[in-house]
């Protein structure tokens, strides 16, 4: 009997995670091939059709806020109707069928509309997808780490494809529309993922998915979710890093930017599962603090003026690498943290609260940063974000998460 259980477990595991988690990783991989082909050049495309730094801030702020607010709403709705797959399928379909048409935009207003549609899709799917992963996970840190690693492997491929096509003299518009192909692959794959009803997990499934936790989400938990949201919000949008990096390289070497973006994603792929496993052993907080500290160092470095040289090239490469480690430390680990703190039957709602807290404050943050960048200077903009990060790190370090976690284990 014991041997049958071991055999069954092996059949249900791929690279240390359950089959559904791996499939959702593939969905994210193809979606990110599509998304990052666009993202690695989108700020440059927006500037080429008459946009500005402020416009970049508006597009980033509005679309990020819209996405995260919807994550909050749909997280609550998925728990209410006890279904996650419809939100996941609809979200991936809307995103992957809308964003390729950004390449035909004649002005930044069209980019904003299509990017908002893409973010609506992301808002629909994310909380429900994260809840499904947490139900299917054997070890949550490893599951989220591997999922985010596969997600970012797609970003590696996508940014590499963008570099090659840009080097081959494809236009921004052609590269963006080509992203439709991997997007369709993602839509097909997500249809194969099965729904999970956490109220009907049988004993066999519990061996793989873990024991249920207390369902109550109290005021203390909501407070902690808001703090995690503030930490997530106090970050640097990759669009501003892409624009700033043009000051570090010769104008004729603009095709190198997707390679820098590629480096960020390679670092993410390598360290995301490692950080996830480490957080399972030593705790989430130390890993997140290290990631936030590296982002703080990067922002301080970006605040200093620089002349184009071999030194500036080495410096921007280092900054992109540190940015990748920051993402690998904060992104998957904060999601695993939510699963630690939430009850089993309320994880969709818990992820909803988390993303809602991010959405409500992200709009102002991006626009303020862009305003300072455009009307004062990049130096003051990065000083501003550095101060915000320092404050958030202090608040996060001083917050005691252990009591609420122990309460959820009772």
Biggest beta sheet attributes: 2 strands, antiparallel
The total tally of domains equals 1
Do you know the CATH architecture?
Answer: Up-down Bundle
Which topology does CATH recognise?
Growth Hormone, Chain: A
Range of helix content: over 70%
Quantity of strands, as a count:
2
Quaternary status? single chain
Task: Detail the poorly predicted runs.
Answer: 1-11, 201-215
Describe the overall structure.
There is one protein chain. The protein is an all-alpha fold and 410 residues long. It has one domain (16-194, 205-409): Up-down Bundle (Growth Hormone, Chain: A). Helices cover 78% and strands 1% of the residues. It is built from 18 helices and two strands. The protein has helices at 2-11, 19-39, 42-48, 53-81, 85-98, 108-136, 140-167, 172-178, 180-190, 203-209, 219-233, 238-245, 257-282, 284-302, 310-341, 347-375, 378-398, 402-409, and strands at 13-14, 17-18. A hairpin with a 2-residue loop joins strand 1 (13-14) and strand 2. Helix 7 (140-167) runs antiparallel to helix 13 (257-282). It starts with a helix and ends with a helix. Residues 1-11 and 201-215 have low confidence and may be disordered.
Give the secondary structure arrangement, pairings included:
Blueprint: H1 2-11, E1 13-14, E2 17-18, H2 19-39, H3 42-48, H4 53-81, H5 85-98, H6 108-136, H7 140-167, H8 172-178, H9 180-190, H10 203-209, H11 219-233, H12 238-245, H13 257-282, H14 284-302, H15 310-341, H16 347-375, H17 378-398, H18 402-409
Antiparallel strand pairs: 1-2
Helix pairs in contact: 2-7, 2-9, 4-6, 4-16, 5-6, 5-9, 6-16, 7-13, 7-15, 11-15, 11-16, 11-17, 13-14, 13-15, 14-15, 14-17, 15-16, 16-17
């Amino acid at each position: 009997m014991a041997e049958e259980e071991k055999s069954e477990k092996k059949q249900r595991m791929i690279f240390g995670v359950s089959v559904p988690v791996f499939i959702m990783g593939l969905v994210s991989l193809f979606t990110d091939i599509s998304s990052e082909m666009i993202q690695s050049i989108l700020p440059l495309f927006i500037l080429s059709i008459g946009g500005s730094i402020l416009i970049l801030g508006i597009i980033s702020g509005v679309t990020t806020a819209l996405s995260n607010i919807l994550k909050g709403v749909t997280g609550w709705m998925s728990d209410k109707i006890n279904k996650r797959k419809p939100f996941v399928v609809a979200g991936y379909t809307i995103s992957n069928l809308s964003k390729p048409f950004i390449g035909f935009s004649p002005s930044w207003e069209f980019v904003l509309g299509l990017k908002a549609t893409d973010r609506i899709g992301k808002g629909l799917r994310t909380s429900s997808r994260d809840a499904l992963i947490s139900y299917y996970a054997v070890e949550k840190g490893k599951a989220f780490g591997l999922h985010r690693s596969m997600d970012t492997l797609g970003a590696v491929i996508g940014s590499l494809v963008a570099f090659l096509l840009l080097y081959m003299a494809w236009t921004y518009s052609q590269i963006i529309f080509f992203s439709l192909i991997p997007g369709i692959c993602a839509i097909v794959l997500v249809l194969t993922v099965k729904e999970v009803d956490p109220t009907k997990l049988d004993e066999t499934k519990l061996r793989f998915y873990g024991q249920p936790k207390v369902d109550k989400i109290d005021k203390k938990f909501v407070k902690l979710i808001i703090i995690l949201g503030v930490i997530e919000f106090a970050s640097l949008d990759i669009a501003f890093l892409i624009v700033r990096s043009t000051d570090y390289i010769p104008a004729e070497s603009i095709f190198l930017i997707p390679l820098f973006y590629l480096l960020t994603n390679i670092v993410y792929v390598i360290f995301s599962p490692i950080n996830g496993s480490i957080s399972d052993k030593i705790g989430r907080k130390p890993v997140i603090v290290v990631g936030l500290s590296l982002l703080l160092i990067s922002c301080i470095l970006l605040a200093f003026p620089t002349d184009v040289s071999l030194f500036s090239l080495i410096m921007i490469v280092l900054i992109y690498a540190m940015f990748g480690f920051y993402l690998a430390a904060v992104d998957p680990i904060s999601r695993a943290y939510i699963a630690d703190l939430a009850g089993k039957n309320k994880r969709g709602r818990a992820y909803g609260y988390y993303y809602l807290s991010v959405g409500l404050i992200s709009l102002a943050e991006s626009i303020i940063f862009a305003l300072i960048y455009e009307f004062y200077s990049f130096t003051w903009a990065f000083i501003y974000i550095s101060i915000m990060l320092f404050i958030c790190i202090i608040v996060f370090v001083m917050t005691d998460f252990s009591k609420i976690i122990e309460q959820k284990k009772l």
